[in-house]
């Protein structure tokens, strides 16, 4: 068994998460284990037929149905997990890291951790010299978020989870970034102002226009922040096969607004 954490190269190992892709393109996230099988309507696929093979290999069911086997990317890992909390979707994760300007060595406060999808990328962005402190009011989300992070990254000594309401205050001082995924982030604005270094960034992820308006009004009321920037990210996939080049029939439209403000002196 692996000790946890993402494996990036080399043969597949027992205990590792892999992505099985069916002939129709259906994706299945599976944890490899000796003696186990992945059942399909065209027979079982043996985990032991995958262990020891390389990323991108082929594997066959008992009835000859061919599957491709890959190490999951972050997006594939996030979107194929069974979860009990809403996630920040990958289309928003990249812009969050860019607009919050999360850099190696940064100290980042986030709330709440939820399922832990964003936490993974925050930890990768700050690197081993940085730190992420996750405030989460719910015990079950704190536990599930911690499990998700450990499963993907392994043990992370620079990640701390505090089970408490961030609207009651932020313990840390001199932090670089505050990232909020909360229904009432305006209650955190004065605490973020005290916690952030000059020039530090507060980014909030909000689904509704009424929440955005209330947050922006709060920035004006509290003061100490430059005018916030508000935007949303829309992802439009395209179908490209042979001579057929067209938008697909669905798209990732509105998920949330990102509101970004920077602390002034």
Tell me about this structure:
The chain has 265 residues and is of the alpha/beta class. It folds into two domains: 17-72, Vcp-like ATPase, Chain A, domain 2, CATH 3.10.330.20; 77-262, Vaccinia Virus protein VP39 (Rossmann fold, 3-Layer(aba) Sandwich). Helix content is 23%, strand content 29%. The chain contains six helices and 15 strands. A seven-stranded mixed sheet has the order 9-8-7-10-11-15-12, sandwiched between helices. A four-stranded antiparallel sheet has the order 2-1-6-5, with no helix packed on it. It has a two-stranded antiparallel sheet with strand order 3-4. Strand 10 (175-180), helix 5 (189-195) and strand 11 form a beta-alpha-beta unit. The longest helix has 15 residues, at 139-153. The chain is globular, with a radius of gyration of 21 Å. The relative contact order is 0.11. The mean pLDDT is 94.
